[in-house]
Records
---
Amino acid sequence: MPLFDVYPLYDVTPVSAKGIYVYDDAGTEYLDLYGGHAVISIGHAHPKYVKAVSYQVAQLGFYSNAIQNPLQVELANKLEALSGCKDYELFLCNSGAEANENALKLASFKTGKSRVVAFKNGFHGRTSAAVAATDNPNIIAPLNAQQKVTILELNDILGVKAELEKGDVCAVIVEFIQGVGGLDQGTADFFEQVYALCKANDTMFIADEVQSGYGRSGKFFAFQQYNVTPDIISIAKGMGNGFPIGGILIHPNIEAKYGMLGTTFGGNHLACAAGIAVLDAIKNENLMDNVNAMSEYFIKLAKTIPQIKNIKGRGLMLGLEFDFEVGALRKKLIYEQHIFTGGASNKKLLRILPPLTIKKDHINHFFEALIDVLEEMEKTAEVAS
């Protein structure tokens, strides 16, 4: 049976990984500066993570949410302590799309309204309401398009005000650092005014931290750079270091009711063991401090390369923008230099989302390789002209 062909694939077959490196079936070592879309937070095959997951799967990998699961409580308590999000409640699911789907559903339950405001170049997932709130018509089927969603320009505070004052908006959903869209950020004034408008208009303020959360921005959550208190915070990618897990943090102004949300696999024993191991590693290894130190070092080196026209993002959620489309550059990095990087809807942007354990030697290696590739491409362009 053939696979449904929806992914353009690089001709690389990883078979193992350790730390910040991935190894293919020919034994070639690759520097992983993409982490599988920012999923690998504490490094591949982290020994304490492997031990925790291996132990749990040998004991009890799964049972439904109809029984007591102390691992969920442990995960919630550690998440509260490390994130600083006091008094929020946790609902666990399986992915970022599912987290945002539940966030939007909960906002609609709470307000009794049905329309959503989202922003241009945002990405919130591929399920029903989440994909409708995503600014990419190529992935929105007619079924999804039935959702009531208004897409505005980032920083368009007058547009937000006008839409919220119509009285039918249940939620504003925002990435504080856009991921797939290309690392754009709103201003502090914009985010804080949107939050105030939500409060004034009985609208839930949803922080999509699926990619920017778990320390990647330099704080545990990217919204913590600003004076806002989200009603709902969605989380996933780096939460399980590769094991599927997601969730939403829910402000106590939203009351839980039996049957309101539900999931079969969400919050299972194995997922919780993975999630707890990630939080323990972030805390015990001071990974958020490392994020800030390595981000500063990365940006310092990036500024020395004249071909880089703009440096976007925060922490270890970074983008290098050029004055040309980077598809060929990414291919040369992976096939010739053996370095994984990411792309974005901005075709001139190289996305950098490494494990939070990255060190200066890894960054030096990347920039040495990048300089070599850029020089080679310029020489080829000169010969061709």
Note: The first strand starts at residue 14 and ends at 18.
---
Amino acid sequence: MKKPTLCVPKALLQACAVGGIALCGWGGGVAQAQDADFTQKLSGTRCGVRSKLFSEGHDIEVNDQNEYWGVPVGASQPSNNYIGATTAALTLDLHTLTGLALGRLHVSAMDIRGRPFSNTPLYVFNQVSGIEADDNLRLYELWYNQSFWHERFDVLVGKLDLSHDFMSSDMAQNFLNASFSWPMLPDNNLYDQGPTSPLATPAVRIKYHPNAHWTVLAAVGDDNPIGAGFYNENDPWNQNQDPSGTRFHFGTGALLFFEMQYHRQDPVYEGTFKLGGYGDTGRFPEQGNAATTHKGNWALYGVADQVVAKLQGATRLGVFVRATGTAAADRNQIVYGLDAGVVLTAPFQRQNDAVGLGWGVGAPSGVLARAARRTGQMVQGNEYHLELTYQYQPYAWLLVQPDIQGIIAPSGGVPDNTGARVRNEAIFGLHSSVSF
């Protein structure tokens, strides 16, 4: 119930891939201007100016997302909510600009609008929306990217959103609930939700890609993107402690990620399988007794994305499963989480559309439950979330996504501000994404 996550929409992922530009930090190599197709953007080539700038090593991407959510059933009270986010990014191809064997320099910023609603009145562990965050205009990422050895080895250094590379499921990105993009476990257990948008942290990420089947990833960075304390009753997500996003914090501890990926190469039944974990050298408050802290933290995870059926034409049926867990119950609010779902791509032979049904669960710490019993408070159990969504893409630059979610036992059973247990929730949303 503590922290939000901002996912990357399908339209922006496609924008990142255009022309080989690593807008969000994926991959390496030098982008070729002739590969850019600006007809896929709402603004097109801007009378040739954009194409000329790209050929000279400049690329500008702007993506605008807006959502409207209604909660007619459950929670502490019915509510209607608007949230929005606009992301602008500039990537400079230093090889094209200078003629030297250099990589790319990238800077991005976010304008976040609306009022968060998952903490109150929903009282949920996992945020309903991936773009739900505190209302700020902030620096997002600032990094330099360099590839070596024919792009088999890649280095990214700067202020990074590490969720782009670690713990992610490609198929789960089709959903809007934040736990499908960044798992509930790190979202609740790490400082400031962890290094995921709209927050980024000073870090170095390396990637080794020896062949088409295997990828090895590792990263080390500061574990506290904001640099504030772990708990803040007046600002639960801590984002307002650094509203501009310009603080480069060092000092709480180091956060380390490691992940191995296997890519199943098949013209139809492709799949990706990941195993990894993270460790944190910082100090974490004990569940139920914030005056006591413990040194270090860790978690392990596994992710599977697999196409299981080829249907008519371009239609494919895929499944995903992601499991996260930790045995450090004394310092973590969530001790395990599981997300799974099915995604049908190109339904009705619409190439860019997708329909998905997803499910997830988060389990709170037993130490927290025992502390609640001792003090006579409500004991938290598991929280379950269910989502049915459809991505409709009438144009390459426009994505419209109606969405239905259900939350069973919000935060595992907690009282609202009247002392009554928060009821199960039915949530209806409409998301739009425009790539300029």
Note: The longest helix spans residues 366-375.
---
Amino acid sequence: MRPDHAGATGSEIAAPGDVVKRESPLAVATGSALASAGADGIRHEAFLYRGDVGFLSATRDFVLAGLAADEDVLVVLPPQRTAQLRATLGRAVKRVEFLDLDEIGRNPARLLPAWREFVERGLTSGRSMRGVGEPVRPERSAPELRECLLHEALLNEAFVGPPSWRLRCVYEAPALDPDTAEGVWRTHPVVVDGGFARASTRWRGEQAWADPFAERLPDLGPPAAELAFGPADLGLVRAAVTHAARGEGLDSDRVDDLELAVHEVATNSVRHGGGRGTVRFWSAAGDLVCEVTDAGLVTDRLAGRRRPDLELGGGRGLWLANQLCDLVQLRSSAAGTVVRMHMAGGRG
């Protein structure tokens, strides 16, 4: 992950056996752009589009090329974009799997498991695969955008080996703020922009990019409440979560969800984070934010993004937090570990 555009042409970066439709206005990428796509694992590319016509240019031909090559295709888009794409695919739409981004992707940490399950199904059946996703939307909050970029970075680490498969992430270029636009170039080996596919030297260049997994999360100011805890205090942590959640207007089910999520993370602090931790609470931009910090170091950067093996009994806490909360932000470095869990206040 690091610094920009080495040359190459075209948007369709053809894998062996791909059929590129000739009506596409963009040529086939070759040379360095193709080599950067990661032939042994994920071939991860970004497509910067402009307007509805640009969106369909970024998605329709890519999907049809996959179907022509007899590949499995998964599309993860918000409902409006899904409807636009479906309307252009004709009878071929029956061969495409769709997931609703608004359902599974508000917390971007849930997206990687969805892609993993898709790839594992293809591997089991011996089929080639490709996908289309749009993780960033204009209505996303600043914390959600940070997690989208972390998700994009971690995709490259989660699929480093066989099987080879292709993922095209589409972005509405005029809606991107400068930091997010820069993050797109730093998390994708290939970026299609203005009709040209370019191998991004920011992806693995000479200038290092700060590790998003180890960054400091933004300061939220003085917390509304704070509690230091040890092994004997987990009941107090649960009571504090319940009090804060009810005060924020969460319904009983969501109070229970947040209580369980924070309890699981706090238990991880006791077991793996030095035996102690601190939980803090804020009301921020309509969300209740519960943060658990400890002195531990998370060495598995994909923690919480793999479905845990119930027989082994480990890895459950962060997975549950990601499934139960609207957004989870995990950061870890030699300075310690921070887990921020967001729940929208008063949401039913």
Note: The mean pLDDT is 86.
---
Amino acid sequence: MELREKLEILADAAKYDASCASSGTEKRDSRDGGLGSTEGMGICHAYAPDGRCISLLKVLLTNACVFDCAYCINRASSNVRRARFSVREIVELTLDFYRRNYIEGLFLSSGIIRSPDYTMEQLVRVARELRETHGFKGYIHLKTIPDADPSLLAEAGRHADRLSINVELPQPDSLKALAPEKDAGQIRVAMAGLRTRIDEAKEARAEASVTRVALAGGRRAAAPRFAPAGQSTQMIVGADASTDATILDVSANLYGSYRLKRVYFSAYSPIPDAAAALPPSAPPLVREHRLYQADWLLRFYGFTAPEVMAGGEGGMLDLEVDPKLAWALKHRAAFPVDVNRADREMLLRVPGLGAKTVDRIIAARRVRSFRMADLARLRVSLRKVAPFVTALDHHPRGGLLDRADLRALVVPRDGLAERNAILPAGLIARPVQLPLFAHV
């Protein structure tokens, strides 16, 4: 099979894995020798939390697999066309694409071939050859196999920037039913082992830094690196009966127990010849979108999982509005919030104010009092924020927060703010598209 044909098959097969953001690693470049970089703008585009776009070669080593996970298009019993790269082919593709300025790094996963140990060994060989043979300093993300020998996972962490192990499904019973070869307990054990090694490497690097300062210029061997960008995981949404509440509880536990950098959500996509245990149709994509927004609230806005779910009904997030707005509509007694006096924690709960915007408000109000026009200059959606804040020149009109139709006033309508009644006098509403994370 031609290399181009393999690439078409295995790049397409990798699209179901969402966990390919490349943020958080250490900064490296090749100005002092070697090849590649983990910095700058850059065929898969991943977006870091700070907005940088990272181009990655995202492929599978092979889409052949001895496992028969019911929800996976590449399962053993699936009638799909199979392909496999050699280690040399992956290495040469990565280097060739980098030299053409197509990519800045590699995201490599694989089906299980022969055994978990054999497959993991092949993935590690790719990373080792890129690093040691070719001096590649770009970003490398390896999907690790929890059943593989711990020594292989340890070597993977020495070469990769980020490692990830997919928990696949939120509940162990669902995983047992739909992926009988996988063990939820073993997945957690492997994640715990990665966390321990990551923590040990960070401590060693911190101690080495202190030692270098104490030696005042003396030379000392650098501390060993281990997955400096941490670990991540992915859950499939909609393949079982798990509610959003269950998914967010599991996410919160994963962040707390294993210090994950990210939990990714992937909406279940119906596959040919699917098992009867799987739903016949995909969940609405907006459900995945709301889970990402809810995850952002857990990580950066000080919300707990129960607080986020308080905005929904029956264990499911509100699909019509973002989770923060849903929470605010059910906690109207907490508003309005004075943008000139409220603390950061409360400002973060105002619909329409993102974390960076809140920090700018706090910094700017030290020297001047905020008016609504000042919020507009920060690109805040006034239509969304106006009912929930007070400013020097604005207070929500009498009884607005108690109105039964408040939800109708703030729910986005095709990006247009038709209902100017809730805006302060003299300000004009402009179409605003709600971004995924910035102003939740």
Note: The first helix runs from residue 3 to 13.
